Amino acid sequence: MTAVCPSGVGPAGATVGSSRGSGAGSTGGQDRRYARWSRQDSSDIATDDEGVPARQLTPLERLNLDMCQDDRVVRELTVGRRIGFYKVRGEIGCGNFSHVKLGIHALTNDKVAIKILDKTKLDQKTQRLLSREISSMERLHHPNIIRLYEVVETLSRLHLVMEYAGGGELYTKISMEGKLSDIDSKIVFSQILSAVKHMHDNSIIHRDLKAENVFYTCSTCVKVGDFGFSTLSRRDETLNTFCGSPPYAAPELFRDEHYLGVFVDIWALGVMLFFMVTGTMPFRADTVAKLKRCILEGAYVLPSWVQEPCQRLIRGILQPQPSDRCSVEQMMGCEWLLPIDFPRAMEPFKLDPSYLAESTPSELEEDEAEVREALEILGITPEHILNNQGKDCRSSVTGVYRILLHRAHKRRAVESMPVVTHVVGSSVSKKDRLKAYHSLRHTSKLCVIL
């Protein structure tokens, strides 16, 4: 992560304006160098030699000055309360190899989830998984899959800055409030199903689909996250690594030496659907060994009050033989989901902002022009963007760009018709009809990734 210093400002004259300034995570000697600046010194920047007021500093210039001169900001950078352009707040989750904190972008004020990994604990296998996680997230463009904004690296830690969802996990909601209604189950499952189809269409296997990795952004919009075990794999390519959570594990993971990733994801969808409509897991045991036996036997009981079309779908998914399971396309066309208009994958969008500096206004789409204007207001110039080339997601300029682009996409989604709709028969109460239609928008408060 490199600071984007304003042109002509700061003691490091050789690097100012080149986007190759001091690392945001660096401390020690740099702090002592900046400590000899005073706030009185910084005020001179706003005037010329004759005392005539000069132009007002841009938000980017002010932020970079604060990161160099402001005692409080420098202290926050030193102790890890700031990472690059992000103010770091309380912990919101933890995983096997990481913990997740809430962050706030200092320029845009957007909330983000920051997944923090200790580099000293990353062995080669974990580093490969992390690389796959980043590449999987950047390969996907779907309204129900969380986005990666930026990767910030310091001497000791790696930070994945991602979408934040204020609604929490699907698992927590069901555990606290009980099973979902039939209508809510259809709306939520259709979004998950559409997201998984997009993954498989792009040769990505998630391998850790579960209710804990589905996150609410509003009352009826969810996103699939945590691609830490994901991998790139053709539909006919066999895998041999056991991944994921045992309660969601397909029988072949316990039984065979190799498995097809697509069928493992499909089995997990069946377990998740069972949990959504019943509030319980289909396979339960006190130990992993007993759980393994339950899964291999394929013994589970569907409550009679689950609608018959839904029962047929669950039975079609939870088939012991992988080739006998419903495909994603068959699930989307099943009777239970007939009233649902599935969300659609987005047109691939540019992850790098360099084209904004090289295009004329007439060459840009509406969202892109909006983002370029927003970047200019923040003080990010074409020079900054061009100096940013080749850094991919490991750049503060890219982070700001992706956040602003996502904001524009969300605004377009709000202005358009709902992506998920539900046709409710006249026998359903008015309360349920209203519930089905309320907040059916892909508005996202961003997403927690564990």
Question: Can you describe this structure?
Answer:
The radius of gyration is 25 Å and the shape is elongated. The strands form 4 sheets. Strands 1-2-3-4-6-5 form a 6-stranded antiparallel sheet. Strands 7-10 form a two-stranded antiparallel sheet. A two-stranded antiparallel ribbon has the order 8-9. Residues 5-46 and 416-450 have low confidence and may be disordered. Helices cover 39% and strands 12% of the residues. It is built from 17 helices and 12 strands. It is an alpha+beta fold. The chain has 4 domains: 1-79, no CATH class; 87-162, Phosphorylase Kinase, domain 1 (2-Layer Sandwich), CATH 3.30.200.20; 170-345, Transferase(Phosphotransferase) domain 1 (Transferase(Phosphotransferase), domain 1, Orthogonal Bundle), CATH 1.10.510; 354-415, no CATH class. The longest helix is centred in the middle third of the chain and has 20 residues, at 182-201. This is Serine/threonine-protein kinase NIM1.
Task: Summarize the structure in short.
The chain has 450 residues and is α+β, with helices and mostly antiparallel strands. It has 17 helices and twelve strands.
Topology:
Layout: H1 29-35, H2 39-43, H3 59-69, H4 71-79, E1 82-83, E2 86-94, E3 99-105, E4 111-118, H5 124-139, E5 148-153, E6 157-162, H6 170-177, H7 182-201, E7 204-205, E8 214-218, E9 221-224, E10 231-232, E11 238-239, H8 251-255, E12 259-260, H9 261-278, H10 288-297, H11 308-317, H12 328-332, H13 354-358, H14 366-378, H15 382-387, H16 396-415, H17 430-437
Antiparallel strand pairs: 1-2, 2-3, 3-4, 4-6, 5-6, 7-10, 8-9, 11-12
Helix pairs in contact: 3-4, 7-9, 9-11, 14-16
Biased composition (Basic and acidic residues): 30-42
Pfam families: Pkinase (PF00069)
Keywords: ATP-binding, Kinase, Magnesium, Membrane, Metal-binding, Nucleotide-binding, Phosphoprotein, Serine/threonine-protein kinase, Transferase, Transmembrane, Transmembrane helix
